[in-house]
Design brief:
- This protein folds into two domains: 2-69, Ribosomal Protein L25, Chain P (Beta Barrel), CATH 2.40.240.20; 77-238, 3-Layer(aba) Sandwich (Alpha/beta knot).
- The protein contains seven helices and 13 strands.
- The chain has helices spanning 20-29, 88-98, 118-138, 153-159, 176-180, 200-208, 223-238, and strands at residues 2-5, 15-17, 37-41, 46-55, 60-69, 77-82, 103-108, 146-147, 151-152, 164-168, 174-175, 188-192, 212-215.
- Strands 6, 7, 8, 9, 10, 11, 12 and 13 form an eight-stranded parallel sheet that branches. The chain has a five-stranded mixed sheet with strand order 1-3-4-5-2.
Length: 247
């Protein structure tokens, strides 16, 4: 059954005016007709099975037939991602969503290349939100990860309240398996640097805020690979990766 994310306020009544994107996808892209049953999700675990009653030239409506709430089964992993160059964060958001990451925070550090044009930044954030939604729709995830505004490394470190804080840093770091051995954390924050990694001063600052430097084996992972590589390990150890579909 086709799945679409909509804002929670659209699901307050049983009769729904389909958002333009949903209408366009059903009528123009997929060439579906009225009578089609679809799932509308609010991104917070709420799911509605709906029947499309109207799908005309200018818009469509649907009726909610059934409602239920789904529980997030992924282990809480928060990715604090140093802003990489170009569109590399797109991949991080897509694969991170598939792997159950609960929140993304783009981090501006010494070796990041931030966008200075506000209008361009707004467009980029909108694109990131769409990437997350599409990834969640494709992997049948009912909870949308949060996307926080980009912030400085200092603010990121100061505001992080995770039970276990990991910093991926190839220098003077302990192996990941050694740090995780015997741990049963409530949640984990994973701090990843941009291309070129963190400076020694930044790593020292992260340590002062309780982050534990770790390395992921003998190979140096790219910035856009490292975060969801560790997320996969955490979901396997503490979350739902490998449990199958019936949880």
């Amino acid at each position: 059954m086709l799945r679409f994310f909509v804002s929670p306020d659209r699901l307050q009544s049983d009769e729904i005016n389909l958002p333009e994107e949903v209408f366009h996808h059903l009528r123009v892209v997929l060439r579906r007709s009225q009578g089609e049953e679809i799932l509308l999700l609010d991104g917070l675990g709420g799911v509605c099975r709906c029947r499309v009653d109207v799908l005309g030239k200018k818009g469509g409506t649907a009726k909610i037939l059934e409602r239920w709430q789904e529980v997030e089964t992924a282990f809480p992993v928060y990715l604090l991602q140093g802003l990489p160059k170009g569109d590399k964060l797109d991949l991080v958001l897509q694969k991170g969503t598939e792997l159950g990451i609960g929140a993304f925070t783009p981090v501006i550090s010494a070796r990041s290349v931030p966008v200075r044009d506000a209008e361009r930044e707004d467009r980029r954030v909108q694109r990131w939100q769409k990437i997350i939604q599409e990834a969640a729709r494709q992997c049948r995830r009912s909870h949308l990860p949060r996307l926080h505004a980009a912030q400085s490394l200092e603010d990121t470190l100061a505001s992080c309240r995770a039970d276990l804080k990991l910093m991926l840093w190839e220098e003077e770091s302990r192996p990941l398996n050694e740090v995780l051995s015997g741990q049963s954390p409530r949640d984990v924050a994973v701090l990843v640097g941009p291309e070129g990694g963190f400076t020694a001063d930044e790593a020292a600052s992260a340590r002062r805020f309780g982050f534990v430097p770790v390395r992921c084996g003998p190979r140096i992972l790219r910035s856009e690979t490292a975060g969801f590589a560790v997320a996969a390990v955490l979901q396997y150890l503490y979350g739902d990766l490998g449990r199958g579909g019936d949880l």
